[in-house]
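Encode chain A's predicted structure.
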Amino acid sequence: MKCRICDCENLTPVLDLGLQPWANHFLTKDEVGSEERYPLSLVYCTECACVQLDYTVPKEVMFSNHTYVSGTTKTLAKHFLDTAKEVDLLFTHDRSSKSILDIGSNDGTQLKQYQSLGFDVLGVESCGGIAETANKNGVPTVNAFFNEECAEKLGKQFDIINASGVFFHLEELHSATRGIKKALKNNGVFVIQFLYMKSIVENLAFDQIYHEHLLYYTLDTVEKLLSRHGLTGFDGYLSPIHGGSIVLYVTHKETAPSISIRLKALIDEENRSKVNELESYREFAKKVEQMKARTVEFLDRAKCLGQKVFGFGAPVKGNTFLNYCGIDTRYLDCLVEKNELRRGLYSPGMHIPIVIENEVARHPDIYFCLAWNFKHEILKNNQPLLDQGVSFFFPVNPKE
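Encoded structure for chain A:
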């Protein structure tokens, strides 16, 4: 294959997580055992330093029908509100009319925040059922895959274009980026929110590697992609959401202001960390193997002591963790989940049954927290269980 950013063919393998099922395909009872498995391996581009998957599950498989909804947690909803307020304050607060396009808009959680600030909103969402839900909830949403052709069909330009956790999903990466440039007004701002590879490496958050996430950006590598299409990042910051995500403000090269002090500081820190160098990923791979051994040892010990363990949360990334470590119903009786769309389903690969959180009859000795990125919300919401002696174990502990 060629590098997804620069077309270089010199790609070096750095981490192999084995053959894994598509992590967002939670299974009905009849589907258990019939799911396909695909290679899940990271490669490093020796030309542009982008780390990426070396195999692509077709977008029609992953994004046409799934059960992820962004409005499940208060933490993410608050993050979306804070982001919308900052974007409006920095770029559009003094405009009599203002518009936003959200790519991969999901159930409209992010766009609702912009609606409350007076924006005309439009979402593009590939999952038909979720797009229908958004429309019913008053968020105008087009059911489509966003690319250059889609942008042209929309027939208008926007003050703000947003991509929250989707810009690293794009199979049609260059077509979509061309579409973004065409749909962005001359003085418009493209807001990218993406998992930061530097944070993934520092947190050993290997579970954030799954088939939907085709690319793992640093500030250096995302700029190389943007530059190829006449765009550039001029401001941004590191948010704690999802264990460490970059919120990057982007515009047309020809109209871009000078790079901000806070973004320059992040770039300098990234350069010091050497996260764009091959050796960093070889070291990362070694630590991931060690983490697997520690985790299985922890669960084996709990099992030997006769302790009951449930998984807490059934996030997509949790399936990478479970499948790589071989954690099945020998270790976890069930996965406890808020999302009603996953009621009665089973985790892909490990086939652990999902139970809705408010229907748990008896709590375990230990909750194994796969939704570690919402640690503070989980602990706050479950203080009574902590007081009763229930333990909450977080296999990934992001740096504060």
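The two ends are 37 Å apart (CA to CA).
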